[in-house]
Specification:
Blueprint: E1 2-7, H1 20-28, E2 32-37, E3 50-51, E4 61-62, H2 64-77, E5 85-94, H3 97-103, E6 108-113, E7 118-119, H4 121-126, E8 130-133, H5 143-154, H6 164-167, E9 195-196, E10 199-200, H7 210-228, H8 240-250
Parallel strand pairs: 1-2, 1-6, 4-7, 5-6, 5-8
Antiparallel strand pairs: 3-4, 9-10
Length: about 260
């Protein structure tokens, strides 16, 4: 998968691409991450990318011409083959795990890193296919959000993590046929030692009973989601076992749910 990052600070991504998942994906050929300096698409000797906003007000605004030229240059490389062009800004739709899963199926993704007070609205209306925000807060530019998106999408590409199951057991993963893709917050995890400063690992995880472990993990994921992000349960497809667990949580019993022998 090819990622094209349009930015005025390409050097920002230097250390990010030299470590962890992104380095591994580039070295392994699963990802091709290209950095494009927006100033290379300007036409004046000062390489100007911003100007004062019409109507007055504080700050500077990205000019449309350099961004239009940069995206046009990328599109010319693959004539007739469209790809998402994402403008990163606080006004955009919230980035989610579901979006990361959608984008990892693309052959190519372009990210426009905004800066200053904002970008000329014609960029959002006529160049970007979508405007995306990573949260309800404001940053000085789109470089950090671009890094977040790169990491979250690249780690889903086949072969990057080595253990494909790992990526699909995590928080927010979209519910599908696969039992691991549950859309809940992740369940608690433990490792050695089994006892640390008086705190013990839940016995069920040491039992070797895979069905009991599966059930415990599902219940704890439901519990964590119910307590911390109940909004994720709205419209969520719940099994009879899930409903019984949530009923216990609502009554603050939080006890393990026993599935009737008849099976429900």
């Amino acid at each position: 998968m090819t990622f094209d990052v349009i930015t005025i600070f390409p050097g920002f991504f230097g250390s990010i691409l030299e470590h962890g998942v992104l380095k591994r994906a580039v070295a392994g050929g699963q990802a091709n991450i290209r950095l494009h300096d927006l100033r290379e698409f300007t036409g004046d000797r000062h390489r100007t990318v911003d100007d004062r906003p019409f109507g007055g007000g504080p700050g500077m605004v990205f000019k449309p011409e350099p961004v239009f030229k940069a995206v046009a240059a990328l599109q010319a490389e693959s004539p007739g083959r469209g790809f998402p062009v994402i403008l990163l800004s606080p006004q955009g739709r919230l980035f989610t795990q579901a979006l990361a899963e959608d984008w990892m199926r693309q052959e190519r993704l372009a990210l426009i890193c905004g800066r200053y007070e904002g970008v000329d609205e014609r960029i959002a209306e006529h160049v970007a296919t979508e405007e995306i925000s990573i949260g309800d807060f404001v940053l000085s530019g789109g470089e950090l959000p671009a890094a977040v998106i790169l990491e979250s999408v690249v780690r889903l590409l086949p072969g990057v993590l080595g253990n494909e199951e790992s990526a699909w057991q995590e928080s927010f993963t979209a519910p599908e046929a696969d039992e691991f893709r549950h859309g809940l917050l992740d369940c608690p995890h433990y490792t050695r030692p089994a006892e640390f400063q008086g705190w013990s690992v839940p016995e069920v995880l040491l039992s070797g009973n895979h069905e009991e472990i599966r059930r415990w993990r599902r219940q704890r994921a439901l519990e964590k989601t119910w307590r911390r992000r109940p909004d994720l349960l709205s419209g969520f497809p719940l099994s009879a076992e899930d409903r019984r667990c949530l009923e216990a949580l609502r009554s603050e019993k939080c006890e393990p749910v026993v599935i009737p022998s008849s099976g429900e």
